[in-house]
Amino acid sequence: MSFTNKVVIVTGAANGIGRGIASLYAVEGAKVVLADMDEIRGRELEHQIKKLGGDSLFIQTDVRKEEDLIHLIEKAKSTYGEIHILINNAGKGGAFKNTYELTINEWDDIINTNLRSVFIASREAAKYIRKNKLGGAIINIASTRAFMSEPNSEAYAASKGGIVAITHALAASFSNDKITVNSISPGWIEKGDYSLLRDVDHQQHLSKRVGRPDDIARACLFLSSEENNFVTGTNLVVDGGMTRKMIYVE
Length: 250
Prior knowledge:
The chain is of the alpha/beta class. About 40% of the residues lie in helices and about 15% in strands. The chain has one domain: Rossmann fold (3-Layer(aba) Sandwich). It has helices spanning about 15-25, 40-50, 65-80, 105-130, 155-175, 200-205, 215-225, and strands at about 5-10, 30-35, 55-60, 85-90, 135-140, 180-185, 235-240. Helix 5 links the parallel strand 5 and strand 6 (about 180-185). The N and C termini lie far apart (about 45 Å).
């Protein structure tokens, strides 16, 4: 799987899973466009990639705003001349509050950040990805919460379930343009200090460990490689087997 000189856009790239994804693509030789609201961390990663000999561009982006996403795609195209891969990773949790108290503004904020942004960014990026001789790939980061829930998580669950659904719809719409569209549903991915996790945290997974951002990054490489263009319209669960584990109260 070669990503040398491939132009990859990663939204929500400054921290957590997005940072891990962007960093790995850079290591693999891609030109990485970093989109995030966090300018300090975003430019820090841009500098880090360049210091290691990579090629990177940070563009401050609020994915809730259509104009910001259009500017992101246009700037990436004007800078590098082409776009090959889009990773729709930007998202927010929050709004885990009593269902009776959740406001429509809070609902809209989650939906616009997590779901609407996927449609807008994909629409705009596909206009250029389809011009490539071999097409390209779009990957949307969903969540295992698209398939299972705890109380008071309606907005987040709806946004992530929507990502899984729009993924196969986009795969159908872009099929004639040689663009694969897939989603990844992470389980527990530790974005903080991994060493602080308890043994019970690891043991409750079939994999016997909690996930890391690079687990999702490697899945992105697989789904966006030209050799794997037979895979499209699917959702890949990367959760250490957590959602397949049968749980009984003893």
